[in-house]
Write a structure and sequence with these properties.
- The chain is α+β, with helices and mostly antiparallel strands.
- The protein is about 30% helix and about 20% strand.
- The protein has 18 helices and 24 strands.
- The strands form six sheets. Strands 5-4-3-6-2-1-7-8 form an eight-stranded mixed beta sheet.
- The chain binds adenosine-5'-diphosphate (ADP) and magnesium ion (MG).
- Magnesium ion (MG) binds next to helix 2.
Amino acid sequence: MSQRIAILPETITNKIAAGEVVERPASVIKELLENSLDAGATDICVEIAAGGRRLIRITDNGHGMSREDALLSLERHATSKIRTDSDLDGILTLGFRGEALPSIASVSRFRLATREADSLEGTEIVVEGGRVRDVKACGMAPGTVITVEQLFFNTPARLKFLKSVETEAGHVGDTVARMAVSRPDVAFSLTSDGRELLRVQRSDLRRRIAQAVGRDAASGLHEVASSGGEVTVTGFISGPSVVRSAASAMFTYINGRFVRDKVVQHAIMQAYRGVIDRGRYPILALFIQVPPGEVDVNVHPTKHEVRFRRQASVHDGLQAALEEVLRRSPWLAHRPEPAAAATPAPPTGQAYRERIAAAAQASLALPVKPAPASPAARFAPAGGTGMERSAAAIPPPEPVSVREPVEPFRPEPAAGESAGYFSSLAVIGQFHGEYILCQSGIELVVIDQHAASERVAYQRLRRQFRAGGVESQRLLFPETLELSFSEAALVGRFREDLARIGFELEPFGGATVIVAALPRVAADGEGMRLVRDILAELAALGTSVAFDGAIDDLLARIACHSVVRGFHPLEGRQITELLRAMDETDFAASCPHGRPVSHTITLGELEKIFKRT
Ligand code: ADP
Ligand code: MG
């Protein structure tokens, strides 16, 4: 009988572990940054080349390692962070599994140089594919420098799964940004192919968030500081007027560790329910502290997931903390009724729900559809930052940039001059600034003017796209837009495609892009918001699906931004033009939102209502 079972050599077990921990350059960087922070570093430099495939180098000024520890750190399950079984229940460091260094060293050409402050020289260890090649003394500043070259050179399957240089660099940028937000007291820098993408000095959280998500957004943040029971929540959250179409500006941490956790996510969205639109996400950085014994971070090797001992109490504690801030904040500030003015009781949970529901109904919370109606006045902001102003109660702010004049709405001439159905209608008038009422024989035709304009714009965009590209309009003063690193990577990857749908976006260093031109139909709307929405659509595409496959959704998104929402009186001439344009629109073709555009009420139906029959 032969022996079938053998214990694997460590070079192989490390490679297997690497499969779990090291997915891509960004995961290497996450592990190394965690180590630097655990080592007490206050200044960390990250350099990458070719998105991290060719080179990753992290330099920190932490406590470094002795020669013995440096050699040990490359052994599997070697850690300075826990000693006993019971330590696992109270982990205060970011690392503890003792797996990262040996895993990374097993799938790259790896160099560790490290020096303790009270030591005269440092130690340099060179490892190739998990085999130590060289150990020697070296001169260096106190701290640690880890260099990872040719990641996955010996695991071709992994190498194949890496995405483009821009995409990988984008993930690295996001990883560094998450770490940077978690530790404003530490200086970080990130350089990619010699270009500086990020440099932040030590500062406070508010400033750090601004550096990560953009100054425009950060000015509308509100502080959260709650410490009820076991769950402590601190940080900043945005109001409903500063939202994003992707969750990329939601930084959530549990005991200092960045997590993407369903319970946390759910609690946040519950708190914002009724305050922001579906498909919109707040900007926030939230630090949730729970006693270490209450949370298990050892669920997955990447430690992005956690498990709570008392899930409901974390969920409700977090939700309550956010609702508390949302309730106090200016956009929901409630002008007390005169009678109750003396002692306005703090709203109960129920009252609060009703209020946010009412606010949502008044469209306060629907940034793309500012409502004109008066019910909203009740909720008019009582002072505040100005960022949170409600579109309902206050006239829209002066545009900050000057644009070239836009041509007035002018339908393309009809092919034949024979009047179509809509042109043949007798216009009765406009109802509520949103509907056009017409008569056709013995029928009353009600047209939703927004839906109609949107459909007309959509068809026009499709025609333009097929004829070579969506017409674009240059901005007189290009605007800069601060994105997440992965969004900026999308701009790089889809630049040509974006040009075909009317956008001219140029990288401007870091995660900033310059918006030089927009699709003409949407150029006088909220252009920057449109750009963000389009990038969110592109992000959802991934890489495999062709841009052209999603073109209808993208054009629909642009069309949606081209339409003036809410109460919008039209002159007779504009109504006639719209009806004519509708006749040139293929209403049978796929429509942007699937909403009806017109509705017919027959004389018979009216007579029934009035009980004439
Ligand atoms: P873990 O972080 O889970 O302990 P790692 O494999 O990431 O495991 O690191 C192994 C050990 O090497 C750490 O416990 C720490 O003592 C040491 N180490 C790693 N990186 C650094 C660093 N940048 N500075 C000082 N010590 C470090
Ligand atoms: Mg570690």
